[in-house]
UniProtKB/TrEMBL annotation:
NCBIfam families to which the protein is assigned, alphabetical: thioredoxin
InterPro entries reported for this sequence: Thioredoxin, Thioredoxin-like_sf, Thioredoxin_CS, Thioredoxin_domain
Protein name, as recorded: Thioredoxin
Tree of life domain: Bacteria
Family: Belongs to the thioredoxin family.
Key words of the record: Disulfide bond, Electron transport, Redox-active center, Transport
Domain Thioredoxin: 1-111
Record's signal peptide: none
Listed Pfam families: Thioredoxin
Membrane-spanning intervals of the chain: none
Organism: Streptacidiphilus cavernicola
């Protein structure tokens, strides 16, 4: 399910098809409703998803509703961002950050 912001919500059931089998690198936002920094990061991720369409897929996973995937990747802090490429986690970032810094940290996957 894609929202108007290009950020796809994934679940334990859809994680493999949406993330692990993606032809593009995927930025997964492990988030929770009770997490203020997660809410601050949401509009940043929406902007990144729109700007990087066709290069980087951005998805979000609610850890409270999807504990299997959270446990599988050892995610303990929210927000945690993990970049997956060819089905493997290749970069992990913990905590909210401004858009400019996030794009710098994702430069390898966001190059024109």
């Amino acid at each position: 399910m894609t929202t108007s912001t290009d950020v796809v919500k994934v679940t334990d059931e859809t994680f493999a098809s949406e993330v692990l089998e993606s032809e593009f690198p995927v930025l997964v936002d492990f988030t929770a409703d009770w997490c203020p920094p997660c809410r601050m990061l949401a509009p940043v991720l929406a902007d990144v998803a729109e700007e990087q369409r066709g290069r980087l897929k951005v998805v979000t996973l609610d850890v409270d509703a999807n504990p299997v995937t959270q446990a599988a990747y050892g995610v303990l802090s929210m927000p945690t961002l993990i970049v997956f490429q060819a089905g493997e986690p290749v970069k992990s970032l913990v905590g909210a950050r401004p858009k400019r810094r996030l794009l710098q940290e994702l430069e390898e996957w966001c190059a024109d």
